[in-house]
Amino acid sequence: MSTSNPLAAWLARSPRLILDGALATELERRGADLKDPLWSARLLMEQPDLIRQVHVDYYLAGADVATTASYQASFSGFAQRGLNAEQAADLMRLSVQLACEARDQFWQTPGARDGRHFPLVAASVGPYGAVLADGSEYRGHYGLSEAQLQDFHRPRLQVLANAGADLLAVETVPCALEARAVARLLASEFPGTSAWISLSCRDAAHSCEGDPVEAIAAELDGLPSVAAIGVNCTAPEHLPGLITAMRRGTTKPVLVYPNAGEVYDAEAKVWRGGADPRPFAHMADDWAAAGATLIGGCCRTTPADIHGLFTRWTSTAA
């Protein structure tokens, strides 16, 4: 991984960066069965070609970043499937390799790169709650100390930070404690690594555990390893308030990639309720106006949503 900040370099030449959309729910939409504790990481073993193709389709749709299928990948999770530590590390590295291969395939597609910058790959680092596979990333309250959380994250960070991605995407973090634990771990043990840290939030001002997001943003603001701060897998209606609160706490770029507006039922492992009926690209205009500069989608969003955003912003820029 480069020691430079790829997001700063990107935003120095472009006003915005388009993130990809959902990976796991898009894989399900294409027929994959992810009712498994490993979620999308299961397909690293069973259907890697499908993961690669979803990455390609997001790049073709207009995404400037592919986020890898390592969100729910962990040494403990793979161990429960009978894999040893080296096999687990190989699968984590494979998640980055698939995204890099997809980027190369996109970049070699005639006409695809017209007017585009060479896109990025972000290695997904899911929260501790994701490994529990019980929806804890939407609640927090793990009952662990900062040191225990660092002990959990350290081995996976060691693999993913050296797997060839441009940066890390620390995602769906439900509490200040875990955000602090990962950010301090990056600063002390991975000083050349860039990462964005993205929270899951329960309303327009607080993380899922209840911490004020303005305070979290302020705490992370001084750490050079943190390239951007934001929110993901949160209802779109909360984003304008969250962006405003984060911008009060940080001078770093703010990123947002919400879910489609439904609520996850962790017991049944299904999404319930209805998606936000507003066009995704129109909502994204509001998020950009509030101050977000990196925008994409999370669960239940699709390449069509990202393409709508890309075409809207491309036509506006023209």
Gross CATH architecture: Alpha-Beta Barrel
Strand order, sheet with most strands:
1-10-7-6-5-4-3-2
Q: What portion of residues belong to β-strands?
A: 5-15%
- What string, H for helix and E for strand, traces the elements in order? HEHHHEHHEHHEHEHEHEEEHEH
CATH homologous superfamily descriptor: Homocysteine-binding-like domain
The beta-strand count equals 10
Q: The biggest beta sheet, please?
A: 8 strands, parallel
CATH-derived topology: TIM Barrel
Which segments are poorly predicted (pLDDT under 50) over 5 or more consecutive residues?
A: none
What distance lies between the first and last C-alpha atoms, to the nearest angstrom?
A: 34 Å
InterPro entries: HCY_dom (IPR003726), HCY_dom_sf (IPR036589), Hcy_S-methyltransferase (IPR051486)
EC number: 2.1.1.10
GO molecular function: methyltransferase activity
Keywords: Metal-binding, Methyltransferase, Transferase, Zinc
Kindly describe this structure.
Zn(2+) binds at residues 233, 298-299. Its cofactor is Zn(2+). Residues 5-313 form the Hcy-binding domain. The protein is an alpha/beta fold. It has one domain (6-317): Alpha-Beta Barrel (TIM Barrel). It has 13 helices and ten strands. The protein has helices spanning 6-11, 24-29, 42-46, 48-61, 75-79, 85-107, 128-132, 146-160, 176-189, 213-220, 239-249, 280-290, 303-317; strands spanning 17-18, 65-67, 120-125, 167-173, 195-199, 226-232, 254-257, 263-265, 270-272, 294-295. An eight-stranded parallel sheet has the order 1-10-7-6-5-4-3-2. Helix 9 runs parallel beside helix 10 and helix 12 (280-290) packs across helix 13. The longest helix is centred in the first third of the chain and has 23 residues, at 85-107. The radius of gyration is 18 Å and the shape is globular. The relative contact order is 0.14. The mean pLDDT is 92.
